[in-house]
Amino acid sequence: MTSATASAVPTDRGSAAVGVRATARITAAARGCATALPVLDGDGPFELRRLRSRGAEARVCVVGAMSAPLGGDRLRIEATAQQGAALHVTSAAATLALRGPTSAHASYDVHLTVADNAELRWLPKPLISAAGSNLRQTWTIDLAPTARLVLREELVLGRTGEPPGRVTTRLTVRRGGHVLLDQEADYGPGAVGWDSPAVLAHHRATGQILIVGPGFDAAPPTAQALTDPSQDGLAVLTPLAGPAVLITAIAPGGLRLRHLLNIAHTTRLSL
């Protein structure tokens, strides 16, 4: 494992801000009836730990080795599941976005690549946006035509009793070189309409599960609401224009959000 360095990171106004630049890399490769991890390289705040495998699936846990992301940080994770491999990635704890020593935004970029007949389950703990933080997160995902993906994303806006920070997220998914999903969301102070009835209203947690697999080609599900209107929070299932389904949920807090996503995933869909 190599260590990250604090370096001058340019801000949008051209000034310099001290922040951490760090990249972690994971590569999973099929080896007979199992999956090996020829590349498992943590950096800076990313400590990567091998977990006990399950069947043919290799499992990795991302452990935070320092407070991150802070203002000015530039963080990146790259994960590749090569042909025929099965990879499961989780995290040891929630990721906490904090203000840091500079007003510059932090960036957290996740790049995932899944080859033919490979499977990737990306199931981290939630991201918590603390007061005063400013995070820009991107997900860039490239899938082969027969690849399978389960991606879970949970966002909690503010810790208990505090206002949220600013979070801008962009998710771009390509399958066979064609765009399957491209969406952007913006929450927190300065974002337009994020707490209006058309977006989150009084809710302060939002998340989604994206499931992609060739099995949906033959039997695509129908759009449906997954919660009772009398309950606090809402989850909906939306089929995409391709072999994929998106479950989206909003809730007053992180625990309720996780419950909604768990119920929607385990009772309605599997991969």
From TrEMBL:
Signal peptide: none annotated. Keywords: Chaperone, Cytoplasm, Nickel insertion. It is found in: Cytoplasm. The keyword Chaperone applies. InterPro entries: UreD. Pfam families: UreD. Belongs to the UreD family. Required for maturation of urease via the functional incorporation of the urease nickel metallocenter. This is Urease accessory protein UreD. It comes from Streptomyces durocortorensis. The gene is ureD.
